[in-house]
Amino acid sequence: MNKKKWSTLIVFVVMMSFILSACGEDNSSATNGKDDGKTKLADEQVLNVNIKTEPPSMHPGQATDTTSVAVLNQTFEGLTRLDQDGKTQKAMAQEVEVSDDQKTYTFTIRDDAKWSNGDPVTAKDFEYAWKWVLNPESPDTDSAYYLYSIKNAKAAKTGKASLDEVGVTAKDDKTLVVELEQPTPYFLDLAALYTYYPVNHNVVDGQDDWAQESGEQYVTNGPFSLESWEHKNQITLKKNPNYWDADNVKLETINMYMIEDENTELQMYKNGELDWAGSPTGSIPLAAIPALKQEGTLNVKSRAAVYYYAFNTDMKPFDNANIRKAFALSIDRQGIVTNITKGEQQPAMALVPPAMWEENEKGYFQDNDIEQAKEYLQKGLDELGLDKLPTIKLSYNTDEAHATIAQALQDMWKENLGVKVELNNEEWNVYLNSLSEGDFQMGRMGWVGAVNDPINFLEIFQTTGGNNYTNWESDKYASLLEKSNTIAEPEKRKEVLQEAEQVFMDEMPIAPIYFYTNVWVNKDYVKNVKVPPIGGVQYKWGYIAEH
To answer: What is the dihedral of CA 127, 133, 139, 145, to 10 degrees?
Structure first.
């Protein structure tokens, strides 16, 4: 078999990838402290940040949320990693070879790749981790679909194939062979995701609770290790001396506080207790944004992410598409981003962000189209045999901005549709459980792009379960996504994916509100920590300058 080396593949991936600069921003400058090579390091390399809440899961195979991933991205590492500019680079993989048909990847693991306990990182660690996620008996594996590009992965997860038939094989300690269902131009981006992280199978095998606490059993292979975990209070990370690229890791300690109140977070920042406040792991108080803008300390950068409300389509009245459309169209999104969020967010009338598809700045319907919304409401009422809708419950997780937006929606739907809406607020972990159990009518949610491809947004709703809290699914929608996987030509593939998005927006299982931006402040002495438009923040390259 003729094989092509990494350099050839990178050219191919870059050509096939969508360019995120469509937002008109220089993503490489999304930092307030570039490394000029001359800056002196402070004696203490300690970074203090806020992650707002307790991570729901510190198991790479079970994580689904941005809080958990913000920690895991520092403590674990996959075969590849996205660099500060969102470009794919080799990580645990020293070498990657790809077959001519682009369906077989052979990864060679670095000789110096080690776990934090000194064990070598092996190909078996990857095979074990991925197949654990794909095991139908493994609990809480909502992100398993990220692995479905792999041959027989989906079939194994759904019980239609054995784990032995999955296209992942540890040929020897340092060689991992991965077979795909079809060519996947962005597979090396996928390989950088948390669901693809390895686990030390010699340590975790048979230890179901290994990721519940810090300690000897919590072994990592990333730039940092888990030093301590005070639940609902603080996580402390320490530099991992066994990390293969430890020489380029300057931070010695990262303190991650769990402060839910935005005003407290900002005050701690002003007091010098935090070095960073706001996105992507915390929040800036809405009332503070204008003043921070005026003084020139606020950073605002584009983000491939969407803020939305999910309709529970298994629960009346949102089992009716016209009712869903009525609620979605009667929202004044421009008013929300202008008067509430104030962080240069864009009104969302689509699912895929304009950072990926520029035409989605306009979207699929008119913002705040009250007359059309009333028509949809009447159609829905007629179909349901109702004169008016009962009281609706709107759920969201604890956060100042979420609460303010929920109150605005409550007023809009009362005024525009004559519908009474009750608000329900829950702490993050409890809230996620409520959504997973289907115990809601409308629920706030968001999705942050992890891969530079629109499929990352569209595939959430391909089947029920996982991160699809709406319980909506469509055979036509799913078949279009499956069809897109077989198309190599970018424009033709885009046409099919946009056809799928049209199906989705016609059914309206969610009400998109706005496309996110990252909004934050940081101390001038925090250097080389970039906030990318896609994926999560990485502290591997960051450092504290002398001040």
So the answer is: 180
